[in-house]
TrEMBL record:
<dbReference type="Pfam" id="PF00486">
    <property type="entry name" value="Trans_reg_C"/>
</dbReference>
<keyword id="KW-0597">Phosphoprotein</keyword>
<feature type="domain" description="OmpR/PhoB-type">
    <location>
        <begin position="124"/>
        <end position="218"/>
    </location>
</feature>
<keyword id="KW-0804">Transcription</keyword>
<feature type="domain" description="Response regulatory">
    <location>
        <begin position="2"/>
        <end position="116"/>
    </location>
</feature>
<dbReference type="InterPro" id="IPR039420">
    <property type="entry name" value="WalR-like"/>
</dbReference>
<dbReference type="GO" id="GO:0000976">
    <property type="term" value="F:transcription cis-regulatory region binding"/>
</dbReference>
<feature type="modified residue" description="4-aspartylphosphate">
    <location>
        <position position="51"/>
    </location>
</feature>
<dbReference type="InterPro" id="IPR011006">
    <property type="entry name" value="CheY-like_superfamily"/>
</dbReference>
<dbReference type="Pfam" id="PF00072">
    <property type="entry name" value="Response_reg"/>
</dbReference>
<keyword id="KW-0238">DNA-binding</keyword>
<keyword id="KW-0805">Transcription regulation</keyword>
<dbReference type="GO" id="GO:0005829">
    <property type="term" value="C:cytosol"/>
</dbReference>
<feature type="DNA-binding region" description="OmpR/PhoB-type">
    <location>
        <begin position="124"/>
        <end position="218"/>
    </location>
</feature>
<dbReference type="InterPro" id="IPR001867">
    <property type="entry name" value="OmpR/PhoB-type_DNA-bd"/>
</dbReference>
<dbReference type="InterPro" id="IPR001789">
    <property type="entry name" value="Sig_transdc_resp-reg_receiver"/>
</dbReference>
<dbReference type="GO" id="GO:0032993">
    <property type="term" value="C:protein-DNA complex"/>
</dbReference>
Amino acid sequence: MRILLAEDDPDLSRQLKASLQDAGYVVDHAPDGEEAHFLGDTEPYDCVILDLGLPKIDGVSVLERWRRDGKATPVLILTARGAWSDKVSGFDAGADDYLTKPFHTEELLARLRALVRRAAGHAQPLLVCGGVRLDPRAARASVNGEPLRLTSLEYRLLHYMMLHQSRVISRTELVEHLYDQDFDRDSNTIEVFMGRLRKKIGTERIETVRGLGYRLKPLHDEVSQI
C-alpha cells in the first residue's frame, strides 16, 4: 500500500513515516500543500494523510482541488485546530475521516486500514481468498491455516492482491502502489517477487493474464469464508 503523508511538522513527519513503514506501507512525504497537491495529482496512492494547516496551500484547498479534478483517493485529515467548524470544512471538501492532534499512532493506523479496506470494497477486517487469509492488523498471512513467512515486499504484494482479488492487476499498477516515487520503474523486481509469492501460496492461485497482468483467485475447490 502506498501512502502520501502531507505534514509540515518535521518531528511528526519522521515519527509517522517510520510507524507507517513499520506497518508495511510505502510512504511519500510532502512538507507543504503545493507539493502535496502535485504528488496527489500525478501519483496513484491508496490513501492520503493530509494536515489541514499546511504552508503554501492549506489542506482544505488541496483537498478541494483533488475532488474537483475527480480524484477519489481516500483522505484522512489531521488538524491541531479544536474548532468543530474546521472538521466540517474538511468533510465538506471531501475528507473521509479525521484525527485531531495529538493522537495515538495506533488509532491512525486503524483508521487508515479501514479507509483502504472500504475503498477496495471490503467490509471485514480479515481478507480471505479461498484458503489464503491475511490480517492487516497483525500483518500476518496464512494458507490453509499454515502461517506464511513473507518478506516485507512479498507481504505488500499479497496484501494489494488480496484487496483487489479476482481483478487483473497490471505490472505497472503493482509498481505504482508498492514502491515510492524514486523506485526504478524499469526493474523486473515485481516478476521476481511474484514468482516467490507463487511458490509460497500455490502457483495456481496467481494467474498470469498474458499481456495484461496478474489475477489472484481461489482454487476451484475452495470457498472463501470468514
